[in-house]
Design brief:
Layout (H helix, E strand, L loop, with lengths): L5 H17 L7 H17 L8 E4 L3 H13 L3 H12 L3 E4 L28 H5 L2 H20 L18 H23 L5 H38 L1
Helix pairs in contact: 1-2, 2-4, 3-4, 6-8, 7-8
Amino acid sequence: IGRIRALERNKLTKKTLELAQQYFLPPYAFQIRVGALYLLYGLYNTQLCQPKQKIRIALKDWPEIQRFQQDLIDSQHYDAAYIFRTLRLARAFHFTAMPKLLNYRTKKKIQENEFKEEFKDPSNRVNNLITNDVLEELMNIHDHYQKMKCVISADKSQPDKALSLIKDDFVVTLKDITLEHQEWQQNRMVEIIPKCKKKELVCYMAQAKSICVLTSDHRLSSMSRLGSIKVSSRNS
């Protein structure tokens, strides 16, 4: 009593690996996918099935998994990359044409995957954090900060070196980093986004261009304002 038979053990193990495998693929965040990789490694090596139940991977998902492996190496998560390589050498993956098993002459059941919203990887996180309004406000604050440093300095044309607690090109550097991230995100979206969602990519690129134009305009205006401050200070 209480002992599980081999058939039931195989079904339970297969279902457990299937549930864990869902978190190994997009749209989940990088940290969640790394955790799923460790979970799959532990489940595969501790199962009691003979022969061992393998991790089912559809061929359409394999390119994304290879990109994930490269991300692990680029991020220097060598422990996770080693675990992934160990699973491959152990032939733990079962490559299939479809994500789920299809049976002949059975009624097709449409089953939607229930994703955990809190585990998803928000691709527009940077856009939500650094918006046009935020960049504009940062530019105004930075300009006002520069003016106040000139006012309290001995040389009114430029702030004292002792007051240089922040880089003069802070906002511009932040803008460049934001645009660099957006460019990387666009290239990644081109690789994985379906054709039916190309409009979303166009909107995303338009938003990035608007940020670039906005910050460039403010940079020119702030430079002109700073120049006028220096001229007025010299005249006084």
